[in-house]
UniProtKB/TrEMBL annotation:
Gene3D superfamilies: Nucleoid-associated protein YbaB-like domain. InterPro entries: YbaB-like_sf, YbaB/EbfC. This is YbaB/EbfC family nucleoid-associated protein. It holds the Pfam family YbaB_DNA_bd. It comes from Saccharopolyspora cebuensis. Keywords: Coiled coil. Residues 9-36 form a coiled coil.
Length: 146
């Protein structure tokens, strides 16, 4: 293997390590993520975790007591939806830099994109790996050395 190939492989190894570190950091940030929404007149506050599960729901003021039950229920439901939307937007913002160009991160997080859309049409394999793959195929085609 030439020195150029060794240098390229080392460069790719370093790049892979950076990607691994970035993904580990993103995973940590995702596990700690929460989002809070407060109703317009501050009757209710809702905090959700990274999967949209309610972590906290409280009433910052006593204004909720004046609302009819149906209106209060709708207000709580809307505030939960807003908190979940904020969480989804934060998650999309975190994963977007790691997605192929042209992929809508929010649509992916919402499950609105098929797995096929994430697979590139052409190989994204770095050129050095393509070259090594080609050389290996040539060696296999020639058969074992005699």
């Amino acid at each position: 293997m030439s020195e150029v190939d060794r240098s390229r492989i080392e460069m790719l190894r370093e790049e892979a390590e950076r990607h691994r570190a970035n993904l580990a950091e993103m995973q940590q940030r995702l596990s700690e993520l929460s989002a809070t929404a407060v109703s317009p007149r501050k009757e209710v506050s809702v905090t959700v975790g990274n999967q949209g599960v309610i972590k906290d729901l409280h009433f910052p003021t006593s204004a909720y007591r004046k609302l009819p039950k149906k209106e209060l229920a709708e207000l709580i439901t809307n505030t939960i939806a807003e908190a979940r939307e904020k969480a989804t937007a934060e998650i999309a913002g975190m994963v977007a830099p790691n997605l192929p160009a042209g992929i809508d991160a929010k649509a992916m997080v919402n499950g609105d994109i098929s797995a096929e859309a994430l697979v590139p049409g052409e190989s994204r394999m770095p050129q050095v790996f393509e070259e090594l793959r080609r050389r290996r195929a040539e060696i296999i085609e020639r058969g074992p050395a005699r």
